[in-house]
Amino acid sequence: MSRSGRMRLAGGIALIAWLVLPGAVPARTVVIDDAGTSVLEPLVALRWKNAAPARGAHNDQMVGFMTVRLRLNVAPWMHRTARIYLSLPQQPPGPMQVSWTAQQHLAQGEMQSGNRVLVYVGPIMGPILEDTVRFRLTIEGRWVQHAFPVSMQFEMDEA
User: Fold this and answer.
1) Environment class of residue 88 by beta-carbon count within 10 Å: exposed (0-12), middle (13-18) or buried (19+)?
2) What sign does the CA torsion over 139, 142, 143, 146 have?
3) Is CATH 2.60.120 correct for 25-158?
């Protein structure tokens, strides 16, 4: 067999292995429709974490809270097991820490901006996944010059 014939054969074997081996297909991340979600406090009041920080300390963090009635449209994944993530992209005004508690289905957790965290693993039994989530946002006060939007989204990886 010629060298070019061997190269084609090796490439064909690699392609077949990629198509046949479980887990070999890369997952596609899908943003979950949350159009039915409502934020109960659309304007979050940020307050200084410490009213009087210790002398010489560089603790200028601000903290705010918001409650969200979450409604995720998970109809496309009904009767399947899902892994749902909360994603907090990097965004102005600067790095942010977010922690949360949930009342029903989602796991509590925390993360830094620029990351995503697994918040639900389990079966999807209905078209809507609902929960009430209380978020705590922490950001360095020196970056806060004016009101700013916070963008988070729920995602799922599809194989």
Assistant:
1) buried
2) positive
3) yes
Q: Where in the chain are the domains?
A: 25-158
pLDDT band at 80 (very low <50, low <70, confident <90, very high): very high
- 103 or 18, which is more confident: 103
Q: Which residues of 74-149 form beta strands (DSSP E)?
A: 81-88, 96-102, 109-112, 115-123, 128-140
Distance of CA 102 to the CA centre of its chain: 15
Rounding to the nearest 10 degrees, give the CA dihedral for residues 84, 86, 90, 95. Answer: -140
In angstroms, the CA 106 to CA 33 distance is: 16
pTM, entire model = 0.75
